[in-house]
């Protein structure tokens, strides 16, 4: 499927507005330009931008439709955080915190936030050191689940729930994490890739 066909399919499926599609297209253009000099995403994933990155990120909103504040840990190239910020732009009280420990990634993220006037704050620092109160803490491709829950634990203590984008080893990662953590979890099949999973986590406590 071509990029244009994938773009049209995403808009039809998601009901995304023309203004949101324009912002998502601007993100693709800036990402493609920056990726040529800085490895933000695998170059082979750019032709699959609308499914592998945008749909993958956007589907989280179906799992937490009432959530307005999100923390994206290890925000990297902005998936899912920038996509969420684009889709929540203009909604009352919506805000996304994009947290990354690498300065050059933060500069990329800040450039997009400024360009698109997004309801987002970029934080250059360690995810586990932040003292934010949010509805949802999320991450994609940051760390195995047992380590990821350690990064996310401070957010859970302030009332957050977790929605994490994981690959085909999600079940195995959960089994490992339960050795160190007590929590409730549900898995859903990803709409962007049937091998992927969305892991919903609640009631997290260290054992």
UniProtKB/TrEMBL annotation:
Functional summary from the UniProt entry: Specifically methylates the N7 position of guanine in position 527 of 16S rRNA.
Lineage, broadest ranks: Bacteria, Pseudomonadati, Pseudomonadota, Alphaproteobacteria, Caulobacterales
Gene: rsmG
Enzyme Commission code: 2.1.1.170
Organism: Brevundimonas variabilis
Protein family per UniProt: Belongs to the methyltransferase superfamily. RNA methyltransferase RsmG family.
Coiled coil: none
PANTHER family for this protein: S-ADENOSYL-L-METHIONINE-DEPENDENT METHYLTRANSFERASES SUPERFAMILY PROTEIN
A UniProt-annotated Pfam family: GidB
Keywords, sorted A to Z: Cytoplasm, Methyltransferase, rRNA processing, S-adenosyl-L-methionine, Transferase
Protein name per its UniProtKB record: Ribosomal RNA small subunit methyltransferase G
């Amino acid at each position: 499927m071509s990029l244009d066909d994938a773009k049209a399919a995403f808009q039809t499926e998601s009901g995304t507005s023309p203004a949101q599609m324009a912002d998502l297209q601007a993100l693709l253009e800036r990402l493609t330009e920056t990726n040529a000099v800085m490895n933000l995403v695998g170059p082979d994933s750019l032709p699959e931008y609308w499914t592998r990155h945008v749909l993958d990120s956007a589907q989280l909103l179906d799992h937490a439709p009432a959530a307005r504040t999100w923390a994206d840990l290890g925000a990297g190239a902005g998936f899912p955080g920038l996509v969420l910020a684009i889709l929540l732009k203009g909604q009352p009280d919506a805000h996304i915190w994009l947290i990354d420990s690498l300065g050059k990634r933060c500069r990329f993220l800040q450039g997009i936030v400024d360009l698109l006037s997004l309801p987002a704050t970029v934080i250059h620092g360690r995810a586990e050191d932040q003292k934010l109160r949010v509805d949802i803490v999320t991450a994609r491709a940051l760390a195995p689940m047992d380590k990821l829950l350690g990064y996310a634990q401070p957010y859970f203590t302030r009332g957050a729930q977790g929605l994490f984008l994981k690959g085909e080893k999600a079940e195995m990662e959960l089994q490992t994490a339960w050795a160190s953590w007590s929590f409730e979890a549900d898995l859903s099949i990803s709409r962007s890739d049937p091998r992927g999973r969305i892991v919903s986590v609640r009631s997290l406590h260290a054992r």
